[in-house]
Specification:
80 residues; mainly alpha; elongated
């Protein structure tokens, strides 16, 4: 199942409301929303194309920590 992410402007156009109204609904929690950067959308698409499954920020955290260990970064620096 492919998930289609819309920008705020695209979603507002789809709902036939002004983007300002849509963002107000999001702030009021009347509709669900997630903030994604363009880079994150591309990573999600790449993960899906590679059949990796769900790609979350937690995975990146562990990958980055493993790299820091491999290059000898002290634990004190890693904890900051």
């Amino acid at each position: 199942m492919e998930t289609e992410w819309l920008t705020a402007n695209e979603a507002a156009q789809y709902l036939k409301v002004k983007p300002r109204t849509l963002l107000q609904w999001v702030r009021e929690r009347k509709i669900p929303a997630h903030r994604l950067s363009g880079v994150w959308r591309e990573l999600e698409r790449a993960a899906e194309a590679a059949n990796v499954g769900h790609l979350g920020t937690h995975s990146f955290r562990h990958t980055h920590r493993s790299w820091l260990d491999a290059v000898g970064t002290s634990v004190a620096v890693q904890q900051k």
